[in-house]
């Protein structure tokens, strides 16, 4: 589910960059996805 959301989020981001006339980074032919556990919050 989070990979699906990330993919569509990036497509939306690219479209916004195009609309604003901002530079779009080149497409990465070998993207890497890093999944990291959330750090636990320290309670005071």
Form type = elongated
What is the N-to-C order of secondary-structure elements (H for helix, E for strand)?
H
Estimate the mean pLDDT confidence: 89
Spans of at least 5 consecutive residues whose pLDDT stays below 50 are none
Total strands: the figure is 0
Q: Count up the helices.
A: 1
Structural class: mainly alpha
Q: What key phrases describe this protein's structure?
A:
mainly alpha; 44 residues; elongated
Could you characterize what this model shows?
This protein has one helix at residues 2-20. The chain contains one helix and no strands. The chain is elongated and about 45 Å long. It has 44 residues and is mainly alpha-helical.
Secondary-structure map with pairings?
Elements: H1 2-20
Write a brief caption for the model.
Helices cover 43% and strands 0% of the residues.
